[in-house]
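Follow-up to my post from last week.
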Amino acid sequence: MSKHTLATLVAGLAILILLPFTQSNYGVFVLCSWLVYSISAMGLNLTLGYAGQVSLAQASFMGIGAYTTALMTMAGVPWPAAMIAAMVLCFVIGFLLGYPALRVQHHFLAFITLAFNALVVLMLRNEEWLTGGTYGIVGIPRPELFGLQTQKPLAFYFFVLALFVLMAVALYAIIRSPWGRAFKALRENPIRANSLGVDIRKTTLLAFAIGSSYGGLAGSLLAQLTQFIDPHSFGLTISLKVLLMVIVGGAGFFFGPILGALLIVLAPEFLRFTEGYYLMIYATLVIVLMVFCPTGLLGLVERARTALKLRQNPNATTWEAGR
Amino acid sequence: MNTFFQLFVSGLATGSIYALAAIGFTLLWQASQTINFAQGEFIMLPAFFVLAGTQFLGLSFPVAMAVAVVLSLLLLGLGFKRIIIDPLLPHGVLPIVIATIALGILMKEGVKQFYTAEALPFPALFSDRTLNVLGAAISVQDIAVLLIALGAVALLQLFLNGTKIGRCMQATAQNPNVAEILGVPVRRMILYTFLINAGLAFLASILISPIYLAKFSNGETLGLIAFIAAIVGGFNQIRGALAGGLLLGVIDNLSAAYVSAPYRSAVPLILLIIIILVRPQGLLGKAEGRTV
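User reply:
Got it. Predicted complex:
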């Protein structure tokens, strides 16, 4: 990491710390949901952007995480235990789902995860004795840290921010580790990676399970943020929304999902004046973006950068300029 | 037993409509590796073309149908390919998935905003009388739907296997590079595939709308069922998609009657998961060789 990047990171973090003080309660809520969805999208980016597996089930893992946290904390289990349990459960379920599913890849995995997501929503809706059915669960407590209540929006924001930074650092470490490099090798050329000794199935499975546990954590934070959950909040549309965050920002770029989540969470706020036409405008923008820039916004930045370097040094190959 | 027979036949009828959607879906996949997540909306929309023609422009029903066919082919076939798929094809499957999902939302919301959020009755093409067959009441409409859909599939098969264009289309689907070398106009063949898909979507639309009413959100379930049918039957086979569609229609109807209502919609999903795990190439599909 260069000094330049480090300075940008520190500045970014400073903005994240100072920004909420300038916002109303609602503004802080929007910022919180951005961070929460960023965590979920980071997890999906590991599965999709680094390991190259299309998953349409991220919302179902958020749901599993949210319901686990809600049920456990409301039954009196301390929140750290509940949140860790949510992550572990999502890891295990991700592993169990991925183990058979990763025999088949690409579009098949997309469909299997799509079906899984629909099944999870059906269960959340139908098992009323546990999940409260369509009425959902109300009154999920927010965590208490060293005697400090996070009931106030600002306090909870910093709780979410701390976890967000923690998860981002963890992800960075994973990507830089030999495992993470194996993920990338797999995405670029599975057969070559395999011939170099990367166990394809174990590696993708791990990426999928870790990505799912990120979803689980995001879900448990979402439950504490809104203090109300129902099956509708974890449907297929939400999975697509998280997928969209990863793609719009730029799959395979570390900051892609964070940027994507910002845009997707803020878009409804900016487009609110359009009322009923909101979804149409949104969909049109997505199509236009895909047509003109299928690698996402960060992909666009990268392309501009490469082009610039090529202009400065016309003798360089694209490969050199891209570095 | 009579109820079972009745459910079975009406299941076959809806199943044959699912099959039309599933076949279009597999054709697009074969010809251009396009997974069309808006397939359900493609079936929802043509019925509204017809309704708009009769209600707003005062056209008679047959004229409105003709206009709707042309519109479907232009928008859902030619326009879809030129505007969305062509620029995205070089970038792999994922951008197409996202763009077609967005297209589905756009079509759904467009109908809701500019037309209506209500479910509209659609004129039935056939009488709703029932025939008594061996003690079971079978509706004429079900039989007619089944015959028309199967007839369309048979015609399509004849076209693909019996004409030069059809064979060129198959060659394009199997290996576009070799087809091109052999002088097949690959791009035009792919365009024909998109037009056929639009035509199938139109047919499915006018067959299913009298049964389920025309509603902007119809595409959600239809699209999902079309995927499941295509995968269960075999992603790379027309007869696979046909079998998958019929099977799902029957299973859907039977599980509505014999499985607990809350978990009715889980049955096709579980079937899908089992099929992918046990036989990923689908019931009638051939395993695709792995390319290095």
